[in-house]
Amino acid sequence: MDEVEATDAFLIERISAGDLDAFLHFYTRYERYVIAVCLRITGDRMGAEDAAQDTWMKVKVNAHRYRADHGGRAYESCRPWLGTIARNESISWLRRRGPEGPVVSPLRPSREQGPEERVVEKVRIHECLRRLREHNAKWYQAFLLRHYSDLKWKDVAAVMGEPLPTVERWAKDGLGVMTECLAESED
Known about the structure:
The protein starts with 7 loop residues before the first helix and ends with a helix. It is globular, with a radius of gyration of 18 Å. The protein contains 8 helices and no strands. The longest helix is centred in the first third of the chain and has 23 residues, at 20-42. By secondary structure, it is mainly alpha-helical. The protein folds into 2 domains: 8-97, Rna Polymerase Sigma Factor, Chain: A (Orthogonal Bundle); 115-186, Orthogonal Bundle (Arc Repressor Mutant, subunit A), CATH 1.10.10.
């Protein structure tokens, strides 16, 4: 598929059919736009990255809902639709963060750490994620979708195209591998 020739509507149609190449082309086309919208709203780089990741998951899950002629007006670009998703996910991130400060996730280094400690922690997390992916790709995907993207279980099952009990088991198994790996790397 030629990225330059593929229209947004065509890519969205292919994404809704489960075409990973189409998703990657669409992501490449709009990744900077999405992160810019998220950063403008959250005012926080890590928050913008979180909101952007949630945006891309929503695009994957809800691609079948996209209508190029929404509101009686034909759009050549998905930017308005994508911008709305990014804005909503950024606002959701701000709400989750609350007035007390940033969202704390076991997969993201603590902001209370200094820059060097955050880098070391991020490297540990990425190494454990790499090990999980090599151990079992389905566990890795289920784990990330549930614990990193904060999708609901039914959405994880929909994205993966698998029964709910299966993805719940895979995510739990993935969490076990991550917990074990992070505990080993602390020693």
